[in-house]
Design brief:
Blueprint (H helix, E strand, L loop, with lengths): L2 H9 L16 E5 L2 E2 L7 E8 L2 E12 L2 H4 L11 E8 L14 E3 L6 H11 L18 H29 L4 H13 L1 H13 L3 H7 L3 H11 L10 H16 L21 H14 L3 H7 L3 H7 L11 E3 L2 E2 L9 H22 L6 H9 L6 H9 L7 H15 L8 H7 L4
Parallel strand pairs: 4-5, 5-6
Antiparallel strand pairs: 1-3, 2-3, 3-4, 7-8
Helix pairs in contact: 4-13, 4-16, 5-6, 5-13, 8-9, 8-10
Length: about 425
């Protein structure tokens, strides 16, 4: 038994609502269950009840046993002085406020239908032996219920990503272009070099990008130099030219890369080498100085593919590193890579921008993310085994990752729309 189950029963009135009485047999009418409090203090604020025809307004505290009141030391905490009702699964003794006044108690155990409790136990029992608690029932959910819940958790994921974007917006003085620059930098680094690339972006005043942005060579020298990739003494004309340019830029703009995390090459496919990705970023910003407005205007996946059709400078068409060459090959951003940018950067960025600029319409972000194919990883493979074709596009895959991380892994079935349906016996 978890207190979350009791919170669910109280919040949604999932008990014999018409036959409630206090433990000392006074008639109890629940007029308003109050507002669920997820922080410290009583569990529900501003509830309204009537006990023996006397109206009470205040807070409600919920425990498995009455004695938990003392176990949690509520009798010494002034935050609980305004508790008007103690809701428990099992009453094992009277409890008192700090001023020694008795708190009315209501016992839930006899008021809950056995099916609800049994469904709850069935869902959460042997949780450590399951991949997700509802795995045996996952394929049984109605398509409409599944679709609605995945859309909701997808927007939860967007809201979570928006927190970081808004923090960045605040630190940049509401400079959306600079925020996009930093987000793109991080995601060009992917998982292995995400932190490193973000540290490179943070080490560069965005005004420098705006001043030299028309020259892909200067941008490439700046990015590679700040990444610490021009420190060696190599007898190569292009390397020497980049190094000379970087030293000039470093002095002119008072650049410092002492806090930059060194990017890694180890266990990366050559196309993901930092040299390649930084050159692509340089080309992108030199050819699209107003990238921000371009991103905002794009309404489809195809438009974004065209916008991000960036390649490397000519040197990197025959190199992955400065020390070794290979047969000429264009190294453009692939559609798979742009898909990752759309999922992790572009759609969250556009969603946040729409909200902050007063446009609450989110259908545009939904349409774009639904055009992108589903990601591939073991989590999504498992969901597709439990329910074939659950993840058909990036909207689904992002929603399922949010579902697994924030609900399934935390046993938060009572906050999950799917888990609640199972407990209610509606599946």
């Amino acid at each position: 038994m978890q207190e979350d189950f009791l919170h669910y029963l109280w919040k949604f009135k999932k008990f014999d609502f018409g036959n409630t009485r206090t433990t000392n047999n006074l008639k109890l009418s629940i007029l308003d269950v109050g507002k669920h409090n997820h922080n410290s203090g009583p569990d529900f604020f501003n509830a309204k009840i009537e006990i023996d025809h006397q109206l009470w307004a205040g807070n409600v505290e919920i425990h498995i046993k009455s004695s938990d009141w003392y176990l949690h030391r509520h009798e010494t905490d002034a935050n609980y002085d305004n508790v008007i009702l103690h809701v428990v699964w099992k009453d094992d003794g009277e409890v008192f406020r700090k001023d020694n006044s008795a708190i009315p108690t209501m016992e839930l155990k006899a008021l809950v239908h056995p099916d609800s409790f049994n469904n709850y136990k069935s869902l959460l029992q042997n949780g450590s032996k399951k991949w997700i608690n509802c795995e045996k029932d996952f394929r049984l959910f109605d398509d409409f219920i599944m679709s609605n819940w995945l859309e909701r958790v997808y927007f939860e994921r967007l809201e979570k990503k928006s927190i970081k974007i808004l923090e960045m917006l605040k630190t940049t003085g509401n400079n959306w272009e600079e925020v996009l620059f930093k987000l793109l930098f991080r995601n060009f680094g992917l998982k292995v070099n995400g932190d490193a690339f973000e540290s490179i972006a943070n080490s560069i005043d965005f005004k420098v990008i705006q001043k030299i942005g028309k020259s892909s060579f200067k941008l490439e020298a700046l990015f590679l130099g700040q990444a610490g990739l021009l420190r060696e003494d190599l007898d190569h004309a292009y390397f020497i030219a980049l190094k000379v340019e970087y030293e000039f830029l470093k002095q002119k703009f008072n650049l410092d890369n002492s806090s930059v995390i060194a990017p890694q090459f180890f266990r990366l496919r050559p196309d993901n080498f930092p040299t390649i990705r930084l050159s692509q970023l340089a080309q992108l910003y030199s050819t699209l100085p107003h990238l921000f407005s371009g991103v905002i205007k794009c309404k489809s996946k195809e438009e974004l593919y065209r916008l991000f059709s960036s390649a490397t400078s000519e040197f990197w068409e025959t190199h992955y590193t400065f020390k070794k060459n290979h047969k000429p090959r264009k190294k453009k951003l692939t559609q798979n890579f742009i898909d990752l940018l759309i999922i992790n950067t572009i759609v969250p960025f556009k969603f946040c921008h729409l909200k902050e600029t007063g446009d609450k319409e989110t259908s545009e972000t939904l349409e774009i993310i639904q055009q992108v194919k589903s990601e591939k990883n073991s989590t999504l493979e498992n969901f597709n085994v439990l329910r074939p074709k659950t993840s058909t596009n990036a909207h689904d895959s992002q929603a399922l990752l949010q579902l697994k991380n924030e609900y399934c892994d935390k046993n938060a079935c009572l906050q999950c729309g799917l888990g609640v349906k199972l407990i209610q016996g509606l599946v």
